[in-house]
Amino acid sequence: MSITINELYMEIRKKFRAANISMAELEARELTAFVTKTDKRMTANWAYCYLDDNTVEKARQMTNRRLNNEPLAYILGEWDFYGYTFIVNKNVLIPRSDTETLCELAIEDAKTLENPKVIDVCCGSGCIGLALAAQVPNARVVAVDISEDALAVSRENARRLGVINRYSTSIGNALEKPNEHLGKFDIMLCNPPYITTDEMKELDKSVYDYEPHLALFGGTDGLEFYRNIAKNWVKMMNKGGRMYFECGYKQASDVANIFKNLGMSDIFVAEDLSGIQRIVVIKAKNI
After folding, report:
1. Which of 38, 12, 36 has its CA nearest to residue 26?
2. 117-151 pLDDT, tens digit each
3. Above 90 in pLDDT, residue 265?
4. Rounded to the nearest 5 degrees, what angle is found at the Cα of 90, between the Cα atoms of 86 and 93?
């Protein structure tokens, strides 16, 4: 017997709640809207729309994958960030809302510049740099990542957002010296791997088992990438350019000190949407 969209949603929500999925309602709504091809913000008619058996079966299969700890974003193949929908797969981290504050700060900075040149280091899906490119029509963004698979995802996202003509990618390892042929930049965006050895052992199974460790592990203390970027990548910045870093919830002062110890004093720390000091902004001083 066929069921309505709302009945399907209630079924999925009940299963997610029973499995102690932290955002059961949100995830159930996302999955239901995706599989039924309806607007997740317009649910008033869900009680009156009946579904065919194939759609219901597909939804139940996807539900079972989520109950086996697979992240919903990978099941759907996309996730929202800063008002845009990005393709994601197991080659890139899932965008988090905590990162949107970094994005907002950088966008406001970029809007004050005539033709800002932006570098997105450890770009992953490209969500940060691409959100900036979408919001700042005169910005040009170069995305750098060690993974060609990740860069392929970012390029596809650039095409989907219609900014591919202002977006380029380059293979690069943030633990090594940069490719100076890329030129100089006004803004650096960087959400590097920063999970410590101890924290890796405590990650939720949905993160540890599915998201790429290459994009998570930041060395024993989680600070390896910041040290190398401070030492070797500042030379990529134009005078007075700003660098925007995300860091772990206990790392902001340590990250700031890494740059202070190299003579950069124009530094401030911002809180994410949860009130946690997670964004470090540094005015570049070439060394």
Report:
1. 12
2. 999 999 999 999 999 999 999 999 999 999 999 99
3. no
4. 60
| Fold classification of 78-283 (topology level) | Rossmann fold (3.40.50)
* Residue for token pair 């990542």: 145
CA distance 137 to 128: 15
- The rounded mean pLDDT for the chain is 95
Q: What angle do CA 47, 48, 54 make, to 5 degrees?
A: 90
- Give CA angle at 153 (24, 205), nearest 5°: 35
Which residue in the block uniquely carries the two structure tokens 């993974």?
147
User: Is pLDDT above 70 for 61?
Assistant: yes
In whole angstroms, what is the distance from residue 175 CA to residue 226 CA?
9
Q: Are 27 and 72 in contact (CB under 8 A)?
A: yes
Q: How far apart are CA 219 and CA 222, in angstroms?
A: 5
What residue spans of the chain are helical by DSSP H?
5-18, 24-36, 53-67, 72-76, 100-110, 127-135, 148-161, 197-202, 205-208, 224-228, 252-260
Show the tokens assigned to 127: 């969500």
Lookup: tokens for 201: 């052992």
Tokens of 191: 């959400």
Q: What is the pLDDT of residue 273?
A: 87
Distance CA 127, CA 132 (A): 9
Per-residue model confidence (pLDDT) at position 41? 86
Does residue 58 have a pLDDT over 50? yes
Pairing of strands 84-87, 78-81: antiparallel
**Cut 0.90: pTM above it:** yes
Q: Which amino acid is at 25?
A: E
Task: Kindly report the backbone phi and psi dihedral angles of residue 47, in degrees, each rounded to the nearest multiple of 5, phi listed first.
Answer: -75, -10
173 pLDDT above the threshold of 60: yes
Instruction: Retrieve residue 52's tokens.
Output: 């065919």
